[in-house]
Amino acid sequence: MRAREFWRTVTVDEANVLDRLIDLLRTANVPFCVIGGQAVNAYAEPVVSLDLDIAIAAGHAERLAGLLTRSFRVERFTHSLNVSDARSDLRVQFQLDPRYEDFVARSAPRLVLGVELPVAAISDVLQGKVWAAQDPERRGSKRQKDLADISRLIEAHPEMRASVPADILERLL
Question: How high is the pLDDT of residue 113?
Answer without folding.
Answer: 76
